[in-house]
Amino acid sequence: MEEKVKTRKGIYRVIYDSLSRKWNIKKDGAARVIDSKATKEEALERVKALSENQDVGFVVYKKNGKFQKKK
């Protein structure tokens, strides 16, 4: 009999931080930022790799904080 391992799945979020002027990647439920990138394109590349490795979706926000897209 196989034993199922419980995994904590959350959604990654790409959010602009106007104070540091960087794009932050956070996972739901996490207290800290996973990674920060100077450009949105760099942050998107990183979050896509993270989400594929862990089979988790992600949400991207615009610079003004409004929702942009979900994957």
Main attributes of the structure:
single chain, 71 residues, alpha+beta, 1 helix, 32% strand
Question: What does this entry look like structurally?
Answer:
The chain is of the alpha+beta class and 71 residues long. It has one domain. The protein contains one helix and five strands; from the N terminus they run βββαββ. The chain has a five-stranded mixed sheet with strand order 3-2-1-4-5, covered by helices on one side. The longest helix is centred in the middle third of the chain and has 15 residues, at 40-54. The protein starts with 11 loop residues before the first strand and ends with a strand. The model has no long low-confidence stretch (mean pLDDT 90).
Oligomer: single chain
| Low-confidence region ranges | none
Helix and strand sequence: EEEHEE
Q: What is the percentage of strand-forming residues?
A: 25-35%
Mean pLDDT: 90
Strand segment tally:
5
Radius of gyration: 13 Å
Strand order of the largest sheet: 3-2-1-4-5
Q: Helicity, in percent?
A: 10-25%
| Gap between N and C termini | 34 Å
Query: Which word captures the global form?
Result: globular
Tally of contiguous helical segments? 1
| Biggest sheet architecture | 5 strands, mixed
